[in-house]
Amino acid sequence: MKKALTIAGSDSSGGAGIQADLKTFSAHGIFGMSVITAVTAQNTQGVFAVQDISREVIAAQIKAIFEDIEVDGLKVGMVSQISTIEIIAELLKVYAPKNIVIDPVMVSKSGYHLLNPQAELTLIRELLPLATVVTPNIPEAEVMTKMTIQNLTQMESAAKYIYQMGAKNVLLKGGHLENDSTDILYDGRNFKYYTSQRVKTKNTHGTGCTLSSAITSNLALGYPLSEAVSLAKDYIIEAIEHSLDIGKGVGPTHHFYSLYQKAGFNN
Ligand SMILES: Nc1ncnc2c1ncn2[C@@H]1O[C@H](COP(=O)(O)OP(=O)(O)O)[C@@H](O)[C@H]1O
Ligand SMILES: Cc1ncc(COP(=O)(O)OP(=O)(O)O)c(N)n1
Questions:
Q1: What is the 8-class DSSP label of residue 41?
Q2: 164, CA 20 to 30 Å: which among 29, 44, 77, 121?
Q3: What region holds the Pyridoxamine kinase/Phosphomethylpyrimidine kinase domain (predicted)?
Q4: What b/e sequence results for 190-228 when a residue is b if at least 16 CB atoms lie within 10 Å of its CB, and e otherwise?
Q5: pLDDT, position 263
Q6: In contact, 139 and 176? CB cutoff 8 Å
């Protein structure tokens, strides 16, 4: 069985973060493991408190996994602080896993700064060069590039800029634009476009986490990146189409059984 690791924050409401990642790994027939960087108190309406995990305990979690278990794919989500980013980068260089997906989580849909703004440059400098693929959404790409992004042409320019920051591939997600939702993948030479109709729902909590962990799963299963993204896009669309109207705010995506079957369990 393939094994994947998520290094991210816990979402108490189960829609995003570590919880979304582990559900996605399971739905792909992957054995999921976690390194928790922060515990958040959040629900469909917002984030109410955050406790960062210490650098020492983050390091101990990473070492406990890599000293014992092979990792076929890894994603990094919420990393919150400079010291957290530094220790993760240091240890990823030591253990050098293949297939690293960096989701540069900055601000939740409810507007909470999950990444300390002072740590933005550290994330770019330390984690981007380690990424097989980095998956910013539009607001994150705007922070990274200081560009305004309102259309596909501007998305292409931003993807090129982020590529030059050191990521081997850039998947710029278009979920925050209007109309169709188009994500673009740039490998330093060519663009690939992944377009789907926008699902009309307010329940999109955890879409970014789900997409990046689905890409991680597909890379762990051995798919080349462009196919891993394409399959992940199919997965996120279904997960949004079946999203759950639970809670009083933005409900979560749903990792239901047929996705699990479709992903194929015989690996
Ligand atoms: N309403 C929607 N309908 C279809 N796809 C969507 C919708 N909202 C987001 N997506 C897709 O979900 C994924 C995550 O998107 P995005 O919302 O941009 O990221 P984040 O959750 O990090 O803000 C992308 O593939 C995006 O195209
Ligand atoms: C613990 C934690 N990590 C990441 C996020 C952001 O998740 P995302 O998939 O970008 O979705 P929204 O929260 O923005 O809807 C989070 N909220 N919590």
A1: E
A2: 77
A3: 11-254
A4: eeeebeeeebeeebbbbbbbbbbbbbbbbbbbebebeeb
A5: 58
A6: yes
**Quick check: is 208 catalytic?**
yes
- 73, 77, 208, 251: the catalytic one is 208
Using alpha carbons, list the distances in angstroms from residue 87 to 61, 73, 190.
11, 19, 33
201 noted as active-site residue: no
Answer yes or no: are the C-beta atoms of 263 and 28 closer than 8 Å.
yes
Q: How far apart are CA 267 and CA 252, in angstroms?
A: 28
Residue carrying structure tokens 């030479």: 189
Residue 147 confidence (pLDDT): 96
Of 181, 151, 172, which is closest to residue 241 (Cα–Cα)?
A: 181
Which token pair is 244? 């759950």
Mean pLDDT per 10-residue segment, the chain (267 residues) = 98 98 96 98 96 98 98 98 98 97 93 94 97 97 96 96 96 89 96 93 96 98 97 95 95 78 55
Domain ranges for the chain: 3-262
- Asked if 259 and 238 touch (Cβ cutoff 8 Å), the reply is yes
Catalytic site includes residue 206:
yes
Strands (E), 46-113: 46-52, 73-76, 100-102
For residue 180, the model assigns a pLDDT of 79
Per-residue pLDDT, 267: 46
Spacing, Cα 225 to ligand 1 middle (Å) = 19
Instruction: Give me the catalytic one of 207, 210, 216, 253.
Output: 207
* Alpha carbon nearest to ligand 2 atom 4, residue: 17
C-alpha span between 148 and 141 (Å, rounded): 9
